[in-house]
Specification:
Low-confidence stretches: 1-8, 48-61
Structural class: alpha+beta
Radius of gyration: 24 Å
Number of strands: 10
Largest sheet: 5 strands, mixed, barrel
Shape: elongated
Protein name: LON peptidase N-terminal domain and RING finger protein 3
Distance between the termini: 81 Å
GO molecular function: ubiquitin protein ligase activity; zinc ion binding
Pfam families: LON_substr_bdg, zf-C3HC4_2
Strand order of the largest sheet: 3-5-8-9-10
Helix content: 25-40%
Strand content: 15-25%
InterPro entries: Lon_prtase_N, Lon_prtase_N_sf, PUA-like_sf, Znf_RING, Znf_RING/FYVE/PHD, Znf_RING_CS
Domain Lon N-terminal: 74-283
Mean pLDDT: 84
Length: 287
């Protein structure tokens, strides 16, 4: 039998030793560090210690087996169709920045796994009081993360692709989903010419509305979302539609529930007509 000195005092499995002399298993220690960057027993700071420094008493065979299991887990977590991590919070759109302030340990773990797997991606969905979270969402890509010693994280992310939720699940305290990606349906011929005219018209309408805002409000929008994207020469070149459409939806004063149907639309024409109606309604109220 092993001495208690050489077993994890949290789960009695896979011992590793911290610089302060306490023994745990690597998985338990990682999970504790997601909550607080201190030794679970003596509270000595471990924030600046790389996890692979914890080498403790471990046999070569056990280390090889652990690596194999870790690689299998990373491969499973890298799948961006099944068991995709879902952050249940706010609306997110393709091409639009989405800064996040994270303090829940489960989401800190989720973000760390997204970085470890190399995908740097997770799904964002609105909460739903009945279903748990909305049926449609947007994949976000992590551009940068700042981790703080008190457990908080600031994540700089940007929208990539839209998806539909096929099945909901959970993993280690955060939500997951099996998903399918959705794209706009392309049109041709006369329908394409009509779409081009509508696209140009609504773009000018959106730009005019934005320029009519007070300077203080415009500056807040610019600092958060950046400038309005340029009009695309071909509005169907991107499977998610023109970037300026998503930027406009992000800055319009609409409740999240009113924005969600736009994310699910596979018709650019319908999305443009919807934006046009919203802009006309807002302009009438302003006048």
């Amino acid at each position: 039998m092993f001495s208690l000195l050489y077993v994890c005092q949290l789960c009695i499995n896979k011992p590793v030793t911290t610089p302060c002399g306490h023994t745990f298993c690597l998985k338990c220690l990682e999970r504790c560090l997601d909550h607080n960057a201190k030794c679970p027993l003596c509270k000595d700071g471990l924030a600046q210690v790389n996890q692979y420094f914890f080498l403790g008493w471990i046999g070569l065979l056990e280390l090889k087996e652990r690596r194999r299991l870790h690689e299998e887990e990373m491969e499973e977590l890298s799948n961006l169709n099944k068991n995709v991590p879902i952050f249940v919070c706010t609306m997110a759109y393709p091409t639009v920045p989405c800064p996040l302030h994270i303090f829940e340990p489960c989401y800190r773990l989720m973000i760390r796994r997204c970085i470890e797997t190399g995908t740097r991606q997770f799904g964002m969905c609105l909460g739903d009081p009945v279903k748990g979270f909305a049926e449609y969402g947007c994949i976000l890509e992590i551009r940068n993360v700042q981790f703080f010693a008190d457990g908080r994280s600031v994540v700089d992310s940007i929208g990539k692709r839209r998806f539909k939720v096929l099945h909901q699940g959970q993993r280690d305290g955060y939500n997951t989903a099996d998903i399918e990606y959705i794209e706009d349906q392309k049109v041709q011929g006369e329908d394409c010419a009509e779409l081009m005219g509508l696209h140009n018209c609504v773009y000018e309408q959106a730009a005019s509305w934005f320029h009519s805002l007070k300077s203080s409000l415009k500056n807040r929008i610019l600092s958060h979302f950046g400038p309005m994207p340029e009009k695309d020469a071909d509005p169907q070149i991107n499977p998610n539609g023109p970037a300026w459409c998503w930027w406009t939806l992000a800055v319009l004063p609409l409740e999240s529930r009113a924005q969600l149907p736009f994310l699910a639309m596979r018709s650019l024409k319908d999305r443009l007509n919807g934006i046009r109606r919203v802009l006309a309604f807002i302009s009438r109220n302003q006048n």
